[in-house]
Amino acid sequence: MMYGLLAASALLFALQFFFNQQYQKLRGDGTDSAVTLSLYMHGISFLIMLVLNGFKLNITWFSVLMAVFYAAVVLGYSFSSLKAFKTANLSVFSIFAMLGGMLLPLAYGIIFNNEDFTVFKAVCVILIGIATAMSFEKGKKSRGNMKYYLAVFVLNGLVGVVSTIHQSSPDLAVDSRSFMATVNICVVIACTAYQLIVNKKISHVSLKELGYLAGYAGCNGIGNLFCLIALTSLPASVQFPIVTGGTMFFSTAVSIIRKEKPSAKTVIAALVAFAATVLMMF
After folding, report:
1. b vs e for 182-202, b when ≥16 Cβ sit within 10 Å of the residue's Cβ?
2. Spatial CB neighbours of 21, under 8 Å, sequence gap ≥ 6
3. What's the pTM?
4. Cβ(106)–Cβ(163) under 8 Å?
5. What Å distances lie between residue 159 and 155, 220, 254, CA to CA?
6. Percent of the chain with pLDDT over 70
7. 155 to each of 9, 48, 102, 256, how far by Cα in Å?
């Protein structure tokens, strides 16, 4: 069941990249665009989590502290991803995001949670590292925006680390839906304050933009919820490599369906990542 949740979350994360990319094409990649994206996307996600939890919201000082840090990471990720999309196609962007989402939580689990570093895990990391190297597309514009790719790498990894810390403290943590709802409301508060201070108003979005934001919110919110639920049974060093490889595979599949024509190297890299994901399940 938990592996099924991880497979579903990988597909949702791949689809979220599509909605993010489409929003960026309509709204641009500036700071105001990133703040507006985070405001509406997390507002919608908050409502989804609240409904799923029967309109109950449990909080503790620990969950609020973790949610505030999580929210700060998410805001940085949103800004960096919009900037990165200026030069990266869907499959290449997912490589940086998902590699960070795998390596940092894996390292945290092994170093701080005493999780075993098995041969299967080592081979999985090596395979996904190979997939990453194969997927990188050289170019002047890509090199110029490397700082945004690296930011996406680190920040997406920190999401997994914070999630692991929260779920590893059952006496202080709240249920997964309440935690995600708290994260979302923290982001909404920060974005609302920014817009009122800087712009003196709340930015409006078009109906088409709202549709992409709703799609992004549903995929991101439910995908992260599935990951939090899975963390109650699976160690971080197992979970995040599976999500990483699955998302890389699904992202490339979405790119092909959308006729983005990823290179042969990118397709092979996705297949290598998929093989690594399957290997981690044994």
Report:
1. bbbbbbbebbeebbeeeeeee
2. 85, 90, 93
3. 0.80
4. no
5. 6, 12, 24
6. 90
7. 18, 24, 11, 27
